Each structure stands twice: as structure tokens, then as C-alpha cells.
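Minutes, project huddle
Topic: does the predicted pose make sense with 1-deoxynojirimycin bound?
PN asked that the exact inputs be recorded in the minutes so nobody has to dig through chat later. Recorded below.
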Amino acid sequence: MSTATAKQPSWLSKAVFYQIYPQSFCDSNGDGIGDLPGIISKLDYLQSLGVNALWLNPVFVSPFGDAGYDVVDFCKVAPRYGTNADLARLFKAAHKRGMKVVLDLVAGHTSDQHPWFKDACNNPKSPYSNYFIFTGQEEQRSCYYYQAAVVKGRRGGYYKPNFLAFQPCLNYGYMNPDPAKPWQLPTDHPDCLAVRGMLRDVMKFWLDLGCDGFRVDMAASLIKNDPEAIGLRCLWQGFRAWLDRDYPEAVLVSEWCNPINAIDSGYHIDFMIHFSDSAYRPLVGPGYALNGKARRPHVFFERAGEGDITEFLRIYQKHYEPTKGRGYIALPTGNHDFYRNSHGRDASELRVLYAMLLTMPGVPFIYYGDEIGMRNLTGITEKEGSMWRAPCRTPMQWDGAKPNLGFSTGKSKALYLPVDPAPDAPTVAAQERDPDSLLNFTRKLLALRAKHSALGNDGAFCPLYAEGGRYPFVYQRSDAKGSFAIAVNPGEAEVTIARPQLKNAKRLLGTAVVKGENLTVPGVGFGIFRLAE
Ligand code: NOJ
Ligand code: CA
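Predicted holo structure (C-alpha cells), as shared on screen:
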């Protein structure tokens, strides 16, 4: 039985995304920075991987203090990436292949170099004065990083930044504004509504050029003092109603990490960032990390075998059950903000991780380079406000070409970030030649997902074996066309369990074995099975 019932873009039930960090994907003109023509030149490759939608990190004019998440012109492509015409060409070329392209919408803030902000700081009669939040004093941290941000212009005082100090919040208003703080405007203040209107104009501009939707940066940050997301629901539901009416094929993806709130607010997809439960703990709850850094000493995807899948499941199901059929949870392979999943993990461990991530319900997202197991280049220098994030943002490794592994013909010194210097750095070309490579394994998983709808975005999900502190994790995916079981054992020790549902199961991928009702999963192993009728 399919669980998709809500009105949604027709392509979403089969969507598989690939995230492109534009500056690091493919440099077409040798200036050392990836660009839009470079992305266009790799569409055949992306199609061959089995993805059918792309999300590009911000490609707009910016001083790049936060790698483009500090925008000065929301409607213009940064010259280093190309032109608006190049972006339109990318939309067209992707559509020709049946692929979609989603842009990053930095809705919550601008750069402090944005002309509106500069005008608001310097011109006492600026029409943009209330587009930002000029506080008489420092306000308490509200969202992520609160840094004291002192106005440099004539106005003096402080302003409220959304992330880093040079990213002033756009003003969508406050829930229950405090009358003692006159800068706290209500959400229906005409200037706050004007900011909403501006955001809609930006979306309209790109949708009319051919884009297929948006990944919304810090989606939960827009309305202040709104812990229950009451104002946020209203705001995003308004945008969703508008999209449903005028652009029903456009998708909204949120960086919220709280699928219940995000999907109730009208988002089609919300990320559950499962590789760091510390960053998103306040939004989604503690203990749900599957891999990567967590506050707990162990995560489930570790050879030590001391993680606890029930911690993840408790939170996952809390969000999955009430949202299924109305929107999707995305469990990405990685992203541009965290260590790559290959950090401390070899290719066999990555296979087990991907066996789960790419057979779960919801919409898969593959972070560029994860399909070949690109390394997290720890120790490299910071770039454009990367802080801890440069190691996961290095150039894509296409082939053995010296010196930049096919990313750029420019001088190594000119590169956005260095390429992996390891002599055995994984590349697409080498892995194309090896039928057992991680790249071809990722392809196999995506092909299996595409072939059996039960394994896809809408198939039902039900745990078959998930015991606190025990391995493996086994779950069932099913729809009217069939039922499947997936067993993953990231731990080093072989494990055997029994489940009646597994009798006569036929293995499709992996090395786990079923005998009678018994399932044995080798250490760092997995199995994907078709269940008997
Ligand atoms: C979340 C983005 O993913 C991150 O890269 C960025 O620095 C912040 N939002 C601020 O926009
Ligand atoms: Ca370039």
C-alpha cells in the first residue's frame, strides 16, 4: 500500500537527490572554482548514478564570508559560477534528462554587504529599516550562533544576526512581541509582510526561470520567539498554498531537522541530520545520531558494535508515523556542514551505512563525492567562513589527471580548496572500471530502489528486529507489489537472529544469509531480501 496521499509534485515519489557544492564540483574554465557549465558537463554522469534531482548550495552574488550563505543579490548568479543564462541552461539540460534542479533559498538573512542592509544602517529614512532587526541592546541568543553584532553605520546600536555576525536576520517578526522592546515587531507588521513578499518574489523569479523548488536554509529561524512554530507554520503554509496553486510541481525542502513541525508547516521534505545530534539536539531531541559525531560515546554505525538503534528509532518513528503520506523525511549521506561519513570508516563500512540510508522511506540525498567515498580532508585550512567544514568541501575527484584529479585544469594553488593528495584518492574514473567499487555499489542500491517501489520513497516501513544495544537492525519495506527485508550489521561481530517473516526470503544484495527463520549477518555486513508472499 502506498502511503503517499497528500497533494505533491508528481515527481517526488521517485525523487533521489544529489547535493552539489558548486564551487567544488567541476571547474569548466580553469579558474580553480567549480561552475555551472561544469555541472552541465556532468549531467550524464549524474544520470548514470541513478539520481534524478539536484540541490545546489547557494550560487548567488555574495562576498563569500560564509561560502555564499551571505547573499547580496538574491536574483543574480555570482560571476564565478556563471550567469543567470547558464543557470537557465542547467535547468533545461536537466529537464531534458528528466532531472530536477533545486536551489538554496537563504531565507533568514542577508550579507551585511547587501544594499538593503547598508541603506538601513546609513540612511535614517531608509525604507529597509525594518527589514532587519536593530536591537537597542544585545538580545539573547535565539538561533544557532548568536554573536554580538554592532552596527557600523550611522544608526549605531546592535542588530540581530542569524548565524554569523555578518548575516543580519531578515525581519519576519516576533511571536508575542515584548512591548518593552520596540524592535520586536509583530509578524503582521507591514514591513515584516513586505519581507515575506520579497521572499516570494525571489522564489517566483527562479521558478519562472525553470527551477524546481528550494532547499530552505535555517527554515525554522524566520520568526523569532516562536518555539512552538506557531508563526512559522502560518508563514510556510502560506508559501505552500501559493506553490500548490501557481507552481504545483515545485518542491520545498527544509533544513529544520524537525519533520513533524516542518511537514505540518507545508514542507514536502525535511532533513533529519543524523550525523551530529549535538548541532540539532534542541530541534529533534537527543541521541538520534546514526553516524558521525554525537554526544553519546557510541553511535550505531561503528565497528565497536556498542551503539543503540532504538535511540534513533524512537525519534525517527516519532516523526515518521505522523508525517508519512504527507511529506518525507530525508536521511542524507552527508552534507557540506559536517565531517564526511568516510571519516573513520572504510569502504565496507560505508556500504553497510548506504545499504540502510538508501533503502529507508523518504527522499534520499547523496552528498557529492560520497558515492566514491571521498575522504574528509582533516587539517586543511579554512576557506570562506568554513570553520570546521572545509574538510568535507574539497574538489570532486573525477579521474587521475594531474594535478587536480580532473576537477580543474587550473594551477593547484588557484583551487578553491586542495584536492585529496593521497596516491590512492578515490576517483570516479577508477571506480567506473571496478565492478565492485563503492560507486557501482551505490548504483546497484539506487537501481534496486528504483525497481521495487516498496523500497522507494513511499513504501511502508516497519522494524523487524531493533533491540536496545543489540545488532543487527532489520526492517521491512512493503507495498502492494511486494515486501522486502533489510538487515544491517555495522558491528564487527557476526550476529544471528530469528524472525518468522524471513522464512524463504530471497537475497537480492549483500552477504547476510537466511536459513529457515534464522538470519545471520556477517560482521560489517548487510543483506537485502525479498520476502516470500
Ligand atoms: C546552514 C547552512 O547549511 C550552512 O552552511 C550555513 O553556514 C548556515 N545555514 C547559515 O546560512
Ligand atoms: Ca570555474
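Observations noted during the meeting:
- DSSP finds twelve helices and 21 strands in the chain.
- Residues 27-29, 31, 33, 35 surround calcium ion (ligand 2) (CB under 6 Å).
No decisions taken; revisit at the next huddle.
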